[in-house]
Amino acid sequence: MKLTAREATFDFTGRDTVVLFLAEDFAHKKGAAVPDKISHITKKVNLEFFKGKSGESLLLPLSDQPSLLLAGLGKAGEISRESLRNAAAGIIGVCRKKKISGLHVLLPEPEGLVEKEVLSALAEGIFLGNYGFDRYKTRADEIDPRLKTAVFYVTDAVGSAGILRETAIVCSNTLLCRDLINETSERANPSSIAAEAKKLAKMKGVSCTIFGRRELEKLGMGLLLAVGRAGHHPPQMAILRYTGNPRSKKSLAIVGKGITFDSGGLNLKPSGHIEDMRSDMAGAAACIYTIKAAAELGLRKNLYAVLPLCENMVAGNSYRPGDVYRAFNGTTVEIGNTDAEGRLILADALAYTEKKLKPDFIIDIATLTGACLVCFGEIIAGLLSPSDELAEAVRSAGEATGERVWRLPLYKDYAEDLKSDIADMSNVSSTRNAGTIIAATFLKAFVESTPWAHIDIAGTSWGSKERGYRPKNATGYGVRLFIETIKTLTI
Ligand code: BES
Ligand code: MG
Ligand code: ZN
Predict the structure, then answer these.
(1) Residue range 125-134: average pLDDT?
(2) CA distance 375 to 413
(3) What's the gap in Å between 354 CA and the centre of ligand 3?
(4) Taking the complete model, does pTM exceed 0.70, yes or no?
């Protein structure tokens, strides 16, 4: 979709659709929210019947005048960047149904927000709401058209152009991230995802290395190899590097869980829990498109993305409960449950990242525990980190982007529960309690001293229904959070 900014000369024609955002209390203000320049249009309709509830939208087709698309903002005192994103996404449904392909957007002026905040939030909401995964639909009447253009009327067209350019880059990569997660596990498999990462190496400042089974064996990644053993596609590890600040030696490594299908392994998942498990690579997908977005933005930062990729499948050669495998860092791990596979592949990836890439910060992102979904629902992600500084960087980026996180503790006491009779550690606890903290406690054992944070996106990466600008199924959670976090780190 093309986003453009125009200084407030309203030159729309009778065929255009003009979006007017109205807050709930509009009725009491008697037209105060309508810019003078279009009052000749709005005068023709009685706007007061429009309630302005958040998410509410209404198309008023007018002949010989631009049509009006009213969009509700909710209560005037409760407008935030996040509510603006959701309000903007709320108009996409009407656009699709009525086959509207372009919009002219008048910016509301809510208290406490400056024009560029309003602009970027509305542009994000429209861009992110304008999504559907229809590549397997063969009937034309089931494929809704998408918006192609949105023009925003602003007071500073030059400054706004930069904001919209940035918004389009970050949001288009979020949509690509959704596409890769929504794609079938037949097509989005370890080799095809590694190939997708490799494609980015064409971009300025980006390089990519891929390890296949042989290399993983040589490196001693016993956990990733064990989990991926029964997969039809062999396990891989892709490493992307983006050098945007060659003068600095500092860097951040993002590590993403890339289980392209999680059947649970021999501890097979039951019906009701297995159907959407092609999304178990959402962390890896977020990392790939963060690197792509960073390179397109030309961020002056140094990044690595490390993606352990494999399938967790059932076969005669599946890894088994009771087996013991040796991690990259030498730690031996007893398999208590083959469905706790994410922490195993991440353990190898984290230890490799710290030892070989030597970044200054590590953040991993993973659809790691059902317990995180139970705790936070689909609304916010779990954040666990021994570093207050890194945790705060992620937390504030979450508030800014709406991809929110909430921190859980990592007290040493939890490590108790990961003891094994026969190996250094077990991959599961003997109790069912504190699943998200236990998983993070396991990961912590594979990062020695680098400031590290873990983001559990089991809930936020996949929606059981549409929620504002987050669609049903893959949400693309993580790309916007990472880009915002990266901007605040000195790397
Ligand atoms: N991929 C799952 C976690 C998950 C569950 C993600 C639901 C998204 C939605 C992970 O590999 C898993 O199976 N975790 C187990 C761990 C348990 C066996 C200790 C879980 O959470 O049940
Ligand atoms: Mg699992
Ligand atoms: Zn999993």
Answers:
(1) 97
(2) 20
(3) 23
(4) yes
